[in-house]
Design a protein that fits this description.
With 197 residues, this protein is mainly beta. It is built from 3 helices and 12 strands. Helices cover 9% and strands 27% of the residues. The protein is globular and about 55 Å long.
Length: 197
Amino acid sequence: MFRGFENITELNASNPNGYGFMFAVLGGNDSGGGVLWAPQVIEAAQAHGLVLLENGLLIDTHNGESIPEGMLPRKPLEGADLVVFDQNNIEDPNRVLARKSHSGNLILGTSDKAKIREIPGFEISRTSGFETLELEGSNPAVLICNEGGFQIGDQLIEKGDVVYLDAGDFSIIEFSSACEVFLVTPTADPAGPTKYL
């Protein structure tokens, strides 16, 4: 289920635009049939002029868009339809939260070393500092640069850049400056709902 987030980063001299960093990783190509929004997200979106239609199209009425003829807004989930979704209110933060100060390199995955142990069909790890990143040649990878910069071939990858590498494109990446890079790689987990371990 889609969840809404608010950037609460404070403006200051080193971050005058209030830059905040967040990314989402969706499962494989079987993740199913559109986005479902929690009722409170639909309500909050409407306050900002956003209307989610039954076909998944998002209309921004504050930007002058209107709902096309014959299309209807998606009705909020209720009753039994809503009950089937996990109401994640983070009662146990240790199960779902990997704080930068406490987690190792493997943030999410099936390994005992993962801070968040679940089966989503991919792993997320964090690399930081002056390191050499070795990629497994049989898997594609996505690199998300949050701090610093590094070189891949003739391309300079900088803060905020996202890179997709096909299997075997590069096996070793050396960071020439202190970087923070998130690495997303697929796993051989069977398709299906995410399961906590």
